[in-house]
């Protein structure tokens, strides 16, 4: 006796119809289904089970982004993070940058993605991340998720096959601070980074920001080896491969992605031996954040004995150069959203110094900036109400 076979399409259709009848039956019995922003989807292969697929809400990028940085440790404690949220409520701040994956390589909240679970890198640090993002959205605060990429001592130790090596090709290389790095050319590292980013978007981050997207520095560069890199390609070529694949892997998410670059990338046309060239990164990101901290510029930069003491001049020179270069590349200078410093290094950064930084941004024809304080203590007097 011959039996008719039913296609997967027909079976799926029948399952959805069955689910609809089940829902209608409960309504008939008097059960109510209050709107919760959840779409119910049939779980194939499990009879009678409906899978919840939560709707993700995002805030549109403000025309003028004024942001502060929040570590995941601060985000994990309501009583502490409340102070930073209040700054956003009381001042011009309309955005907060929160660590998703920090310099340790640990991910700030538990993730369901299989690649992340296999790595064992996610922890229950910010237990209410989704709820916290919803709270920020309710206050119309734009939330940027920061992901430190290639500086990752956790994964480098857990997966030494993915790490930057010493010349012997076996021992993990470390910089002068003892930090281990992932090989910037490893496709598995790229896929892992994309997996972390995609899950971050799914809990409500409005933008994904990538830091440490460079080759390592500040270590013994004569004793370093990249097992995954093609020696025939330059560092800018190799990094551009990563930028291309990152954009391709996240393009369907429809939220902005941004890149943190060394401040001197704005004025240098070489790659600073770290692979970063402004024109090679710009096409792949919606926003570029050069870290134009005056304290990080070398002595006698542009004739300044102590660049940290000249915040306006250093930042204005840097951003004028970056603006001109993006215009020459037929791009928009409004892609530029520099990181400014709110910490003491090389000079005392009081309200007057920070206001000089902001003014340099505006005088360069730009309107957005992010404020970096590693301690998350901000000079509120430097912020407009």
Automatic annotation (TrEMBL):
SUPFAM superfamilies membership: (Trans)glycosidases
DUF4015 domain sequence ranges: 67-378
InterPro entries per the UniProt record, alphabetical: DUF4015, GH
Protein name as catalogued: DUF4015 domain-containing protein
């Amino acid at each position: 006796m011959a039996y008719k076979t039913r296609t997967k399409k027909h079976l799926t259709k029948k399952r959805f119809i069955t689910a609809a009848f089940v829902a209608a039956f409960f309504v008939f019995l008097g059960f109510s289904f209050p709107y919760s922003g959840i779409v119910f989807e049939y779980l194939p292969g499990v009879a009678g089970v409906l899978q919840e697929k939560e709707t993700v809400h995002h805030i549109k990028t403000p025309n003028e982004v004024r942001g502060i940085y929040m570590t995941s440790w601060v985000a994990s404690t309501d009583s502490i993070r409340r102070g930073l949220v209040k700054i956003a409520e009381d001042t011009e701040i309309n955005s907060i940058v929160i660590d998703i994956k920090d310099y340790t390589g640990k991910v700030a909240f538990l993730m369901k993605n299989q690649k992340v679970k296999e790595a064992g890198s996610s922890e229950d640090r910010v237990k209410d991340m989704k709820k916290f993002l919803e709270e920020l959205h309710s206050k119309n605060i734009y939330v940027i998720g920061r992901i430190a990429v290639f500086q990752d001592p956790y994964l480098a130790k857990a997966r030494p096959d993915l790490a930057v090596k010493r010349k012997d090709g076996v021992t993990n290389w470390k910089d002068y601070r003892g930090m281990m790095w992932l090989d910037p050319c490893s496709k598995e590292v790229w896929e892992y980074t994309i997996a972390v980013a995609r899950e971050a978007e799914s809990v409500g981050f409005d933008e994904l920001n990538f830091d440490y997207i460079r080759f390592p520095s500040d270590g013994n560069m004569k004793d370093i080896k990249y097992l995954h890199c093609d020696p025939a390609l330059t560092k800018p070529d190799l990094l551009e491969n990563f930028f291309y694949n990152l954009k391709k892997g996240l393009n369907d998410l429809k939220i902005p992605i941004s890149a943190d670059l060394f401040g001197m990338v704005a004025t240098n046309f070489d790659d600073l031996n770290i692979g970063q060239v402004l024109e090679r990164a710009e096409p792949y990101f919606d926003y570029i954040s050069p870290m134009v901290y005056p304290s990080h510029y070398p002595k006698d930069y542009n004739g300044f004995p102590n660049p940290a003491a000249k915040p306006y001049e250093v930042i204005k020179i840097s951003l004028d150069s970056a603006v001109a270069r993006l215009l020459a590349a037929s791009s928009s200078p409004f892609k530029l959203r520099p990181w400014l410093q709110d910490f003491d290094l090389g000079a005392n950064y009081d309200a007057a110094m920070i206001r000089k930084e902001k003014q340099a941004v505006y005088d360069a024809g730009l309107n957005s900036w992010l404020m970096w304080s590693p301690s998350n203590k901000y000079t509120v007097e430097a912020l407009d109400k």
